[in-house]
Amino acid sequence: MAYEFGLIGYPIEHSLSPWIHKQFMQKASVDGSYSIIEINPRENFLEQMDQLKNRNLHGFNVTIPYKQKIIPCLDEVSEEARKIGAVNTVLNQDGKWIGYNTDGVGYIRSLEGKFPNLVAGKDKRILLIGGGGAARGIYYALVTAGFLQVDIANRTEESAKEIAALYTGAETNILTLQDAERQIDAYDIIIQTTSVGMKPEQDISIISLDKLRSASIVSEIIYQPLETKLLKQAQMRGASVHYGHTMLLYQAQYAFEIWTNKKVPIEDMDDQLQLILEGR
Ligand code: ATR
Asked: Which of 77, 121, 174, 225 has a CA that sits 20 to 30 A from residue 14's CA?
Protein backbone atom coordinates (compact mmCIF):
# COMPACT_ATOMS: atom_id res chain seq x y z
CA MET A 1 0.00 0.00 0.00
CA ALA A 2 1.25 3.50 -0.79
CA TYR A 3 0.48 6.21 1.74
CA GLU A 4 -0.81 9.60 0.63
CA PHE A 5 -0.09 12.51 2.95
CA GLY A 6 -0.23 16.27 2.51
CA LEU A 7 -0.03 19.71 4.03
CA ILE A 8 -2.69 22.42 3.93
CA GLY A 9 -1.90 26.08 4.64
CA TYR A 10 -0.96 29.36 2.99
CA PRO A 11 1.68 30.26 1.93
CA ILE A 12 3.47 26.88 2.06
CA GLU A 13 5.53 26.60 -1.12
CA HIS A 14 8.78 26.74 0.93
CA SER A 15 7.63 24.27 3.58
CA LEU A 16 10.20 21.74 4.79
CA SER A 17 7.53 19.16 5.62
CA PRO A 18 7.65 17.35 2.23
CA TRP A 19 11.42 16.84 2.62
CA ILE A 20 11.04 15.66 6.24
CA HIS A 21 8.21 13.20 5.54
CA LYS A 22 9.87 11.78 2.43
CA GLN A 23 12.91 10.98 4.59
CA PHE A 24 10.62 9.34 7.15
CA MET A 25 8.97 7.17 4.49
CA GLN A 26 12.37 5.98 3.31
CA LYS A 27 13.49 5.24 6.86
CA ALA A 28 10.28 3.34 7.63
CA SER A 29 10.47 1.51 4.27
CA VAL A 30 7.01 2.58 3.23
CA ASP A 31 5.86 3.85 -0.17
CA GLY A 32 4.04 7.10 -0.36
CA SER A 33 3.76 10.75 -1.26
CA TYR A 34 3.44 14.03 0.60
CA SER A 35 1.78 16.86 -1.32
CA ILE A 36 1.66 20.57 -0.80
CA ILE A 37 -2.01 21.62 -0.89
CA GLU A 38 -1.97 25.40 -0.82
CA ILE A 39 -5.36 26.93 -0.06
CA ASN A 40 -5.64 30.64 -0.72
CA PRO A 41 -7.57 32.37 2.11
CA ARG A 42 -9.76 33.95 -0.61
CA GLU A 43 -11.14 30.49 -1.45
CA ASN A 44 -14.09 28.94 0.37
CA PHE A 45 -12.41 26.82 3.06
CA LEU A 46 -15.37 24.49 3.73
CA GLU A 47 -15.71 23.71 0.02
CA GLN A 48 -11.99 23.04 -0.15
CA MET A 49 -12.30 20.63 2.79
CA ASP A 50 -15.14 18.77 1.04
CA GLN A 51 -12.88 18.31 -1.97
CA LEU A 52 -10.04 17.19 0.28
CA LYS A 53 -12.30 14.53 1.85
CA ASN A 54 -12.79 13.09 -1.63
CA ARG A 55 -9.03 12.76 -2.08
CA ASN A 56 -9.06 10.32 0.83
CA LEU A 57 -5.53 11.10 2.06
CA HIS A 58 -4.31 8.87 4.92
CA GLY A 59 -3.37 11.95 6.85
CA PHE A 60 -2.35 15.57 6.50
CA ASN A 61 -0.70 18.40 8.37
CA VAL A 62 -2.33 21.77 8.93
CA THR A 63 -0.46 25.03 9.22
CA ILE A 64 -1.07 28.77 9.28
CA PRO A 65 -3.77 30.11 8.81
CA TYR A 66 -5.94 26.99 9.24
CA LYS A 67 -4.93 25.41 12.57
CA GLN A 68 -8.13 26.64 14.23
CA LYS A 69 -10.34 26.85 11.16
CA ILE A 70 -10.01 23.11 10.52
CA ILE A 71 -11.59 22.16 13.87
CA PRO A 72 -15.30 22.32 12.80
CA CYS A 73 -14.45 20.04 9.84
CA LEU A 74 -13.18 17.22 12.09
CA ASP A 75 -15.08 14.20 13.43
CA GLU A 76 -12.96 13.99 16.59
CA VAL A 77 -10.33 16.13 18.27
CA SER A 78 -7.73 14.79 20.73
CA GLU A 79 -7.85 16.19 24.24
CA GLU A 80 -4.48 17.81 23.72
CA ALA A 81 -5.54 19.61 20.53
CA ARG A 82 -8.81 20.67 22.16
CA LYS A 83 -6.99 22.21 25.12
CA ILE A 84 -4.42 23.89 22.92
CA GLY A 85 -7.22 25.07 20.62
CA ALA A 86 -5.32 24.21 17.44
CA VAL A 87 -4.81 21.19 15.20
CA ASN A 88 -1.67 20.58 13.14
CA THR A 89 -2.16 16.91 12.23
CA VAL A 90 -5.21 15.06 10.90
CA LEU A 91 -5.55 11.28 10.70
CA ASN A 92 -8.07 9.77 8.31
CA GLN A 93 -9.40 6.73 10.18
CA ASP A 94 -11.78 4.87 7.87
CA GLY A 95 -13.17 8.14 6.52
CA LYS A 96 -13.29 9.85 9.91
CA TRP A 97 -11.03 12.87 10.37
CA ILE A 98 -9.32 12.96 13.79
CA GLY A 99 -7.36 16.07 14.79
CA TYR A 100 -4.19 16.16 16.87
CA ASN A 101 -1.63 18.72 17.91
CA THR A 102 1.94 17.40 17.81
CA ASP A 103 3.76 20.69 18.50
CA GLY A 104 3.95 20.42 22.29
CA VAL A 105 4.99 16.78 22.41
CA GLY A 106 7.40 17.45 19.53
CA TYR A 107 8.93 20.26 21.50
CA ILE A 108 9.40 18.11 24.65
CA ARG A 109 10.92 15.31 22.54
CA SER A 110 13.36 17.74 20.97
CA LEU A 111 14.38 19.10 24.37
CA GLU A 112 14.81 15.56 25.74
CA GLY A 113 16.80 14.61 22.65
CA LYS A 114 19.33 17.34 23.41
CA PHE A 115 19.25 17.15 27.23
CA PRO A 116 18.33 13.55 28.07
CA ASN A 117 17.84 13.79 31.84
CA LEU A 118 16.08 17.10 31.90
CA VAL A 119 12.50 15.98 31.81
CA ALA A 120 13.04 13.50 34.66
CA GLY A 121 14.13 16.36 36.94
CA LYS A 122 10.77 18.05 37.32
CA ASP A 123 12.05 20.54 39.88
CA LYS A 124 13.50 22.76 37.16
CA ARG A 125 12.29 26.36 37.05
CA ILE A 126 11.09 27.22 33.59
CA LEU A 127 10.33 30.59 32.00
CA LEU A 128 8.17 30.51 28.90
CA ILE A 129 8.30 33.71 26.85
CA GLY A 130 5.25 34.38 24.66
CA GLY A 131 1.49 34.00 24.69
CA GLY A 132 0.58 32.79 21.20
CA GLY A 133 -0.34 29.37 19.81
CA ALA A 134 3.18 28.00 20.14
CA ALA A 135 3.38 29.04 23.81
CA ARG A 136 0.04 27.36 24.46
CA GLY A 137 1.15 24.04 22.98
CA ILE A 138 4.49 24.08 24.76
CA TYR A 139 2.95 25.09 28.12
CA TYR A 140 0.46 22.21 27.89
CA ALA A 141 3.20 19.73 27.03
CA LEU A 142 5.48 20.94 29.85
CA VAL A 143 2.73 20.71 32.44
CA THR A 144 1.52 17.29 31.29
CA ALA A 145 5.13 16.07 31.21
CA GLY A 146 5.20 16.92 34.92
CA PHE A 147 7.17 20.16 35.18
CA LEU A 148 5.99 21.92 38.31
CA GLN A 149 7.14 25.50 37.86
CA VAL A 150 6.44 27.18 34.53
CA ASP A 151 6.23 30.98 34.62
CA ILE A 152 5.00 32.91 31.57
CA ALA A 153 6.24 36.32 30.38
CA ASN A 154 4.45 38.06 27.53
CA ARG A 155 3.97 41.55 26.16
CA THR A 156 0.19 41.14 26.59
CA GLU A 157 -0.53 39.95 30.11
CA GLU A 158 -4.04 38.77 29.27
CA SER A 159 -2.97 36.02 26.84
CA ALA A 160 -0.39 34.73 29.34
CA LYS A 161 -3.13 34.58 31.98
CA GLU A 162 -5.42 32.67 29.62
CA ILE A 163 -2.73 30.05 29.04
CA ALA A 164 -2.10 29.64 32.76
CA ALA A 165 -5.84 29.33 33.46
CA LEU A 166 -6.29 26.45 31.03
CA TYR A 167 -4.42 23.82 33.00
CA THR A 168 -3.79 23.09 36.64
CA GLY A 169 -0.90 21.10 37.98
CA ALA A 170 1.93 23.60 37.79
CA GLU A 171 2.79 26.73 39.68
CA THR A 172 2.71 29.60 37.21
CA ASN A 173 3.52 33.26 37.80
CA ILE A 174 2.72 35.80 35.11
CA LEU A 175 5.51 38.28 34.42
CA THR A 176 6.10 41.32 32.28
CA LEU A 177 9.02 41.08 29.85
CA GLN A 178 10.86 43.61 32.03
CA ASP A 179 10.35 41.42 35.14
CA ALA A 180 11.60 38.40 33.20
CA GLU A 181 14.74 40.27 32.21
CA ARG A 182 15.37 41.39 35.80
CA GLN A 183 15.00 37.93 37.32
CA ILE A 184 16.37 35.78 34.51
CA ASP A 185 18.91 34.27 36.91
CA ALA A 186 16.06 32.53 38.74
CA TYR A 187 15.41 30.15 35.81
CA ASP A 188 17.00 26.87 34.75
CA ILE A 189 15.30 26.78 31.34
CA ILE A 190 14.16 29.78 29.28
CA ILE A 191 11.96 29.01 26.27
CA GLN A 192 11.46 31.72 23.64
CA THR A 193 8.25 31.22 21.59
CA THR A 194 7.53 34.66 20.10
CA SER A 195 8.33 35.74 16.54
CA VAL A 196 10.75 38.41 17.81
CA GLY A 197 14.21 37.88 16.29
CA MET A 198 12.99 36.08 13.19
CA LYS A 199 14.40 36.95 9.76
CA PRO A 200 14.45 39.68 8.46
CA GLU A 201 14.49 41.21 11.97
CA GLN A 202 17.30 39.07 13.31
CA ASP A 203 19.03 42.00 15.02
CA ILE A 204 16.56 42.17 17.87
CA SER A 205 15.83 39.89 20.80
CA ILE A 206 12.76 39.78 23.03
CA ILE A 207 14.74 40.36 26.26
CA SER A 208 18.34 40.87 27.23
CA LEU A 209 20.12 38.04 29.01
CA ASP A 210 22.61 40.11 30.98
CA LYS A 211 21.84 38.28 34.22
CA LEU A 212 21.72 34.76 32.77
CA ARG A 213 23.49 32.01 34.74
CA SER A 214 25.88 29.80 32.78
CA ALA A 215 24.14 26.68 34.10
CA SER A 216 20.88 27.64 32.37
CA ILE A 217 19.49 26.41 29.07
CA VAL A 218 18.06 28.85 26.53
CA SER A 219 15.69 27.30 24.03
CA GLU A 220 14.34 28.96 20.90
CA ILE A 221 11.56 27.97 18.53
CA ILE A 222 12.64 30.34 15.74
CA TYR A 223 14.77 28.51 13.15
CA GLN A 224 15.34 31.29 10.65
CA PRO A 225 18.00 32.29 11.51
CA LEU A 226 19.21 29.13 13.28
CA GLU A 227 21.28 31.20 15.66
CA THR A 228 19.08 34.03 16.88
CA LYS A 229 20.38 37.04 18.73
CA LEU A 230 18.97 35.55 21.94
CA LEU A 231 20.91 32.30 21.45
CA LYS A 232 24.08 34.25 20.68
CA GLN A 233 23.67 36.18 23.94
CA ALA A 234 23.14 32.90 25.81
CA GLN A 235 26.29 31.39 24.33
CA MET A 236 28.29 34.46 25.23
CA ARG A 237 27.30 33.87 28.85
CA GLY A 238 28.37 30.24 28.70
CA ALA A 239 24.82 28.86 28.85
CA SER A 240 23.57 25.84 26.88
CA VAL A 241 21.39 26.45 23.85
CA HIS A 242 18.62 24.50 22.14
CA TYR A 243 17.93 25.32 18.49
CA GLY A 244 14.46 25.83 17.03
CA HIS A 245 14.73 23.55 14.00
CA THR A 246 14.73 20.39 16.11
CA MET A 247 11.12 20.97 17.16
CA LEU A 248 10.21 20.91 13.49
CA LEU A 249 11.67 17.42 13.14
CA TYR A 250 10.12 15.98 16.27
CA GLN A 251 6.61 17.36 15.74
CA ALA A 252 6.76 15.73 12.30
CA GLN A 253 8.06 12.48 13.83
CA TYR A 254 5.02 12.35 16.13
CA ALA A 255 2.64 13.14 13.23
CA PHE A 256 4.16 10.33 11.14
CA GLU A 257 3.72 8.00 14.11
CA ILE A 258 0.03 8.92 14.37
CA TRP A 259 -0.44 8.14 10.65
CA THR A 260 1.63 4.96 10.35
CA ASN A 261 2.26 3.62 13.90
CA LYS A 262 5.97 3.80 13.08
CA LYS A 263 8.41 5.87 15.13
CA VAL A 264 11.38 6.67 12.93
CA PRO A 265 14.78 7.65 14.39
CA ILE A 266 15.64 11.17 13.31
CA GLU A 267 18.84 12.18 15.06
CA ASP A 268 20.84 12.03 11.79
CA MET A 269 18.44 14.48 10.11
CA ASP A 270 19.43 17.31 12.42
CA ASP A 271 22.65 18.18 10.56
CA GLN A 272 21.00 17.83 7.15
CA LEU A 273 18.18 20.17 8.15
CA GLN A 274 20.69 22.69 9.50
CA LEU A 275 22.47 22.68 6.14
CA ILE A 276 19.22 23.23 4.26
CA LEU A 277 18.28 26.13 6.54
CA GLU A 278 21.73 27.72 6.38
CA GLY A 279 21.49 27.67 2.58
CA ARG A 280 18.31 29.74 2.58
P1 ATR B 1 2.26 31.69 17.24
O2 ATR B 1 0.91 31.08 17.05
O3 ATR B 1 3.26 31.29 16.19
O4 ATR B 1 2.80 31.53 18.63
P5 ATR B 1 1.13 34.32 17.59
O6 ATR B 1 -0.12 33.74 18.12
O7 ATR B 1 1.01 35.41 16.56
O8 ATR B 1 2.09 33.25 16.94
O9 ATR B 1 1.99 34.85 18.84
C10 ATR B 1 3.07 35.62 18.67
C11 ATR B 1 3.75 35.91 20.01
O12 ATR B 1 4.80 36.82 19.75
C13 ATR B 1 2.86 36.57 21.05
O14 ATR B 1 3.29 36.19 22.33
C15 ATR B 1 3.17 38.06 20.82
O16 ATR B 1 2.94 38.88 21.94
P17 ATR B 1 1.44 39.48 22.24
O18 ATR B 1 0.66 38.36 22.83
O19 ATR B 1 1.68 40.60 23.15
O20 ATR B 1 0.92 39.93 20.89
C21 ATR B 1 4.64 37.99 20.56
N22 ATR B 1 5.16 39.16 19.86
C23 ATR B 1 5.09 39.42 18.52
N24 ATR B 1 5.72 40.58 18.23
C25 ATR B 1 6.19 41.08 19.42
C26 ATR B 1 6.93 42.25 19.79
N27 ATR B 1 7.32 43.15 18.88
N28 ATR B 1 7.24 42.42 21.10
C29 ATR B 1 6.86 41.53 22.02
N30 ATR B 1 6.15 40.39 21.74
C31 ATR B 1 5.81 40.18 20.46
From this structure: 77
132 lines ligand 1 (CB under 6 A): yes
0.90 exceeded by pTM:
yes
Q: What percent of the chain has pLDDT over 70?
A: 100
Per residue in 90-140, pLDDT (tens digit) is: 999 999 999 999 999 999 999 999 999 887 777 899 999 999 999 999 999
Ligand 1 centroid to residue 87 C-alpha, Å: 19
pLDDT for res 267:
87
- Cβ(68) – ligand 1 distance below 6 Å: no
pLDDT band, very low/low/confident/very high, at 210 (cuts 50, 70, 90) = very high
Query: Is 67 tagged catalytic?
Result: yes
pLDDT digits 0-9 by tens, 15-63 = 999 999 999 999 999 999 999 999 999 999 999 999 999 999 999 999 9
What domains does the chain contain, in order, with CATH numbers?
2-101+246-278 (3.40.50.10860), 104-243 (3.40.50.720)
Marked catalytic residue, from 27, 67, 114, 211: 67
